Amino acid sequence: xxxxxxxxxxxxxxxxxxxxxxxxxxxxxxxxxxxxxxxxxxxxxxxxxxxxxxxxxxxxxxxxxxxxxxxxxxxxxxxxxxxxxxxxxxxxxxxxxxxxxxxxxxxxxxxxxxxxxxxxxxxxxxxxxxxxxxxxxxxxxxxxxxxxxxxxxxxxxxxxxxxxxxxxxxxxxxxxxxxxxxxxxxxxxxxxxxxxxxxxxxxxxxxxxxxxxxxxxxxxxxxxxxxxxxxxxxxxxxxxxxxxxxxxxxxxxxxx
Length: 256
What we know:
- This protein is of the alpha+beta class.
- The chain has a domain at about 90-120 and about 130-255: Glutaredoxin, CATH 3.40.30.10.
- Helix content is about 55%, strand content about 10%.
- Strands 3-1-4-5 form a four-stranded mixed β-sheet, with helices on both faces. A two-stranded antiparallel ribbon has the order 2-6.
- β4 and β5 (about 210-215) form a beta hairpin.
- α2 (about 35-85) packs across α7 (about 215-225) and α5 (about 160-170) runs parallel beside α7 (about 215-225).
- The longest helix is centred in the first third of the chain and has 53 residues, at about 35-85.
- It is rod-shaped and about 145 Å long.
């Protein structure tokens, strides 16, 4: 049986424990009811709300950017596809200037300001054809033999510069496109007239692929941005195109 002294000590310990518990409970209650505690809790809750709102805003912005990017890509692809559909029946520089299989094998890659007539080409006038018209015909035939891709351009034209930059700098094409600067060519005006009649395009640039016009500067840009230019060159160029690959060079914003 415990002694009275031990019972007394035990009782004091129990009483002290109860008093400490009551004190701590009351202090905690007072702390929660204090202005400092309330303001701290409100500040923490506000920060949590702001963080959640910021995260929602960032998620919404990313979703909107992704939607805009998808829409722009879809628009570019649709525009490129419409253009490809339109050029599928495009008129070539046909009839008198259409290349024969033997002539196709004589293509010479390169870039130059003017073309040139073969020295061994016999000048035979067609009925009702003037000497000047025949000269233009011979020159155009000679130009078309230079490369599967001919860029009829004008040196000062910004759209021509854009088409040339895309085809000459942003792609490695073999044989390389051949450039004819109509403003520097002695028959430039007549060549442009002939191209207008045979391809339906009077303006420059006028890019011919295998004798067919695939458009001007904006059209080439659409095909490039929709990533259809490489396939278009390969499919229309056939065996005449040895290789075509896209480079890392980007389109200069000033050319847009």
